[in-house]
């Protein structure tokens, strides 16, 4: 598989181009199966047998999902310059652990059999169990869902800004969402206008946030207009401007909590621990902090904060990979099991018992044909929530096996397959 050529070079004239010379592919994951895709055709003309009918967000480019061997990839036509720029940015974000789609390759020097040059393409891996925001509103916008989406977007923007990433095109459309224990986890899906810096200026952050305010309000307006045209009776009144204000307020709260310098007296040293615990509750770990003393006072400023506090803790205890809210919920159930049945037992041992006595039986009780509908941690979270509701209604504890059976019959069986939806 060849390395990418200089994007400024137009390639040989059509008359001099050897028959069958089609593409150059730059990739960190060499896989000849990519060469089997019909790169000699414009993306809009790719045959149905190659494509996957996943829901697509709104994009200024032509975007399609396609089969590439055993996996599904998203292909976006753009210029060679922007494809390489976005590929490089996404690779760097991947190494930094930022929630974003995984870049696969850049395809350039595409020509039709007649010698007509075609746009370059950026190829990214399809993010399993993810949805564009519009796919979450098949029955019309609901206030609670909209609020959870903008909270997830605000958290993503904060993570990006802490990493020195200036987005330049913040919107719900440029984001994918995964369910996360009643909330959502947001992933960056379009980094074409993004830039990575050692740190961002207040002006850069402010521009991104104001752009988010404007774009989100407009997107919610479009949702409401579309719902009205389709005759949906909206269960909630959604105010686009209140939603966009909530986004900004959530961002500012998180940014302040994660970065603000605190000053307190020497006899209030407990506030250092309290600040760290507060950040942990928000889902962040403090990797590095600055502590200075002056005239009997302490100044504390977190310098490096890392998202995924509960995710890392759950993985350490159980080996499970989960989103932050899922991890928080499952950790709570592990702690409850230890308190009720194994008081005084080491946390690591309780976690292993929980995997054997709770997690495994729930997943085994879900029919194999339905396990692709949601990620396993989300299924377990929903079963635990369903058991609580059934117990409350019955006025007594409902056994987990009974709760799983009722959940599968009444809830999961009617859900779409979110790993490969539509």
From TrEMBL:
SUPFAM superfamilies in the record: Protein kinase-like (PK-like)
Classification via InterPro entries: DUF4032, Kinase-like_dom_sf
GO molecular function: kinase activity
Domain DUF4032, chain residue ranges per copy: 254-411
Xref: Pfam families: DUF4032, Kdo
Region described as Disordered: 1-23
Keywords from the UniProt entry: Kinase, Transferase
Keyword Protease found: no
Name the UniProt record assigns to this protein: Lipopolysaccharide kinase
Taxonomy of the source species: Bacteria, Bacillati, Actinomycetota, Actinomycetes, Micrococcales
